[in-house]
Each structure stands twice: as C-alpha cells, then as structure tokens.
Amino acid sequence: MKNFIPDKAFIDPRVLNYDVGKIAINHLTELNVPIEKSRRVVIEGKSPLENYSKSKKTIYLTVNKQKKLRPCKPSADYQFSLSSSCPGHCEYCYLQTTQGEKPFMKVFVNIDEILDVISDHIDKNSDITTFECGSITDPVALEHLTGNLKKCIEFFSKSKNGRLRVITKYNNVDSFLNIDHNNHTKFRFSINTRYVINNFEHSTSSFEERIIASKKIASSNYPLGFIIAPIIIYDNWKEEYKELILRLKEELKDYSEPITFELIQHRFTRTAKDLILTRFPKTKLDLNEENRQLKWGPYGKFKYVYPKEKSSEIKEYISKLIYDNFKNSTIEYFT
Ligand code: SF4
Asked: Where are the bilayer-spanning segments (predicted)?
C-alpha cells in the first residue's frame, strides 16, 4: 500500500533541535503537507466522529522524554514508543478505547535519547532484556517519516543483551531488509483472513501485502512470528483460515527457522462495543452479547468472548492447521 500522508502536521518547536526532526519536516514539506509550529494540537471537528477522522489524518512531530519504561508482560520486559496511535482504522483496535476522542499520531524524533533510555534498562539487568515497540502504535506504519525503527534494529543488533520485538499490520518493510539485525529483532505480522482484513481493518495493508512483506522479512532471516487476531467466526471462516495458513506456507517454504504463532479470539467489552457502533455504525462485527460468554479480564473489565464450545473449536481447528503445515512452529498461546 502507499505510505500514509497526513492531511496536517503540527510541529513541536523542540523537534528542530534533532536531525530526525529536520529530516521529517523536509519530507512533509516535499509532500505538501500543511505544517503548523505549535506546542499543542488543535483539532476542531463538528462532532466526535469528525474529530476522530480528522485526528487519524493528523500527526504531531514531538519528543519522547520518558525516562522510565513501562513493563510489558507477558510479551516483553519493557515497552517503548517511537510513535503513538496509527493511521489504521481497525474497528476492534484496543487503542480505540484508550486514546480518547482525538487519537492523532505523535511521532517522536529524539531517537538517540530514546535509545539511551533503552540502554539504561538493558544495563540494569545481567540477563537478556526484551523490548516491545508496538504497544500504543504500529511501529512500521509511520516509519517512512523518520527511519527510527531501522535505527532501533541496528542499535539492538549491536546490543549484547537487548532484544526487540516488532508487531505490524503494514508492509513497508523494504528499509529493514539489507541491514544488520544479528537476529536480535523479531518481526511479528498481525494477519487474518481476507474477509476480516477487508471488512474490519481499514487503511492497513491487505492480506496479500502482509504475506509478501513477511516473506521479505523471512528472506532477510529475521526471527519471525504471526499473531492471528482477532479470530472471528463467520460463514466461511474455516475455509478462509485454511487459505491463510496455506498461503503462508507457500510463501515461507524456504524459511527453515522456527515460526511462532499467537492466537487471539475476538472479544469486546461493553465500552468498546459502544465506541465501535458510534465510529463504525455500519460495522459487520457480531457484537451481540447473547452469542458470547463473559470473561473477567486482567484490566478489571468483563469482556465478551465466544462460548466455551466455540472457542475450543477455534483453538483446535487453527492449532491443527498450523501444526500440520508448519512442523517447526510453536503456538505461544490461545486466548
Ligand atoms: S494497525 Fe494496529 S494500532 Fe493501527 S488501528 Fe489497527 S490494530 Fe490499531
């Protein structure tokens, strides 16, 4: 897919002190993106829906001065951010409920300072320390503006004890292919059936684009994994998840390293349901509580998941597909 071009960029004046800031501003200028220097982002839509859609086209170039990184269990020891929010419109994105009415994208330019903070956290520990960079953003979606993720991969390649985990739904991975990663960065692609991607993951890379991107990453010998999430039951779900696994198998036939899979069934909270119906009034998502069972979530909220017999069916069916077609694979969890 084409790289994201914002409708408007606000620029924190502090970014002019950083090389990446100047490069990003030049790039935005070349793209004819209107730029406004400001310490705050002003988005004034006539309705919450307009605020949401304008925000998803607005970026704020700024700096990330966080010194203490938050834990990120179970996926990694810590999380850090090169950006927040993302240009995608996935209807069930958990950021929908955490980033407020105006989820504009912050893009951080002070990469050397961010890497210094990571270094400090690595040094505190004598063992391997793992870092996730996709907890509040898609780290690949905005990479073309800064080149920061590439710098991170190169930083981790030289780190004795630091390891990076990347998760993405985007395919602009070419800048990561011919660089030294030293197997210290693991790429995970969030993947799903054509139906799910086409209907619910608006403004993200397509089914085929993600599979081809994963092949490119595999050809560059990165450690590789897939998150299949959310797994949704619909008319033709079994056939389509089978197609997904077989397409992956076909494209990854030359990749001999172990591949990990993480499986997450579709779930929603009442708050998420209300927000999805406001932002995507024509959604085809099945949000009928009567078709679900309640499960107590780790963040103190009930969520609606598939009833036990349905979730067992999903788990058994997809696990068998994976183990039958990827002998060298591990399913890290199903939830
Ligand atoms: S690509 Fe990821 S971060 Fe972006 S909207 Fe979709 S789920 Fe959310």
From this structure: none
pLDDT at 166: 98
Query: Is the CB of residue 196 less than 8 Å from the CB of residue 241?
Result: no
Q: Which of 39, 79, 80 is nearest to 60 (CA)?
A: 39
- Binding site membership of 169 for ligand 1 (Cβ less than 6 Å): yes
- pLDDT grade, residue 130 (50/70/90)? very high
- Mutation pick for ligand 1 pocket among 142, 143, 166, 169 (CB with most ligand atoms within 8 Å): 169
Q: How many CA atoms lie within 13 A of 33 on its CB side?
A: 25
Over residues 188-194, the mean pLDDT reads 98
According to DSSP, residue 95 is labeled G
Strands (E), the chain: 8-11, 35-37, 58-62, 70-72, 76-79, 83-84, 89-90, 105-108, 129-132, 162-168, 185-191, 201-202, 224-231, 259-265, 293-296, 302-305, 329-334
Mean of pLDDT values over 160-175: 98
Ligand 1 atom 8 nearest Cα = 93
Distance 309 CA to ligand 1 centre (A): 29
pLDDT, tens digit (0-9, with 9 covering 90-100), for 31-83: 999 999 999 999 999 999 999 999 999 999 999 999 999 999 888 999 999 99
Nearest to 283 by CA among 134, 96, 104: 96
